[in-house]
Design brief:
The chain has helices spanning 23-33, 51-59, 62-67, 90-99, 116-125, 143-151, 172-187, 234-237; strands spanning 17-22, 40-46, 48-50, 70-73, 85-87, 105-108, 131-134, 161-165, 192-203, 206-217, 220-222, 241-246, 252-256. It is of the alpha/beta class.
């Protein structure tokens, strides 16, 4: 007998911000957490993101994908018993960009061996994008990608922050990349490019991740992008931390009470 066709699960409303701290939560709770009300998907420090997780999203329906605005994977656990990382191929990430055209924030850390196709897919297919991070020590993008972004100013016109893997300046290819990256920030005067490098450091008998960032805007190295953030995670804020008021110049500050 032919096997019975597996029917899709019924569509639910889900929750606005769906967080998955580990892979078991995704396997058991994805259809309860993700639905037509979901705007943001966040993966925690015990999650290994794979192609299958991306493929699951289109299977949930067009309405679910088109309502998504944030897709966030953070890499930070490098301890001996860590279960945190990215195992994605180009095709899966391009599928994410195609299926979710209304994404505004994309954060993919610890990527590797991806090509320019991934970077250009997000820029060309997600016109509402404001912040894009594609970083990882084993990842490099080419000068061609920087040049193509300059040739298409209509791509992601609202893009304000672009985070890419750090690049040296010792080889000809690296120098050309840095030159075109600076030219890109001159062409897009509101764009803030951050080059991110990470290093694993052994402390107290275990490994920790250190991050170094270099920022560029309008062709020059510049100071860190100013953004109001609370001094703890979203989960820890609860009712303890409250946004109080604006400092001179318009930046927000946070106060414990």
């Amino acid at each position: 007998k032919a096997p019975k066709r597996k029917l899709p699960k019924p569509l639910t409303a889900g929750i606005k911000q769906a967080r998955f701290d580990n892979n078991n939560e995704w396997d058991n709770l994805q259809y309860r957490k993700i639905g037509t009300s979901t705007r943001k998907i966040v993966f925690g420090y015990q999650f290994v993101l794979k192609d299958d997780h991306i493929h699951d999203l289109p299977a949930m329906g067009k309405r679910v994908c088109e309502n998504l605005t944030d897709f966030v994977f953070k890499y930070g656990d490098v301890s001996y018993d860590a279960h945190n990382g990215v195992e994605l191929k180009d095709d899966a990430v391009v599928l994410l960009a195609k299926s979710c055209p209304n994404l505004k924030v994309v954060q993919l850390q610890d990527i590797y061996s991806m090509t320019d196709v991934v970077l250009l897919a997000f820029l060309g297919l997600c016109p509402k994008l404001t912040s894009l991070e594609l970083t990882g020590n084993a990842q490099k993008f080419s000068t061609d990608a920087m040049e193509e972004m300059q040739e298409h100013p209509e791509w992601a016109p609202k893009l304000k922050k672009l985070l890419l893997p750090s690049c040296g300046d010792s080889t000809k290819a690296e120098k050309e990349f840095m030159k075109e990256m600076r030219n890109l920030t001159r062409e897009r005067r509101d764009l803030f490019v951050t080059l991110v490098g990470t290093m694993q450091v052994k402390k107290w008998g275990d490994w920790e991740l250190t991050v170094q960032k270099t920022h560029y805007q309008r062709g020059h190295k510049t100071r860190k992008f100013k953004q109001a953030t609370p001094p703890c995670s979203d989960e820890e804020i609860g009712s303890t931390w409250r946004k109080r008021s604006r400092r001179p110049g318009g930046s927000m500050y946070w106060r414990y009470h």
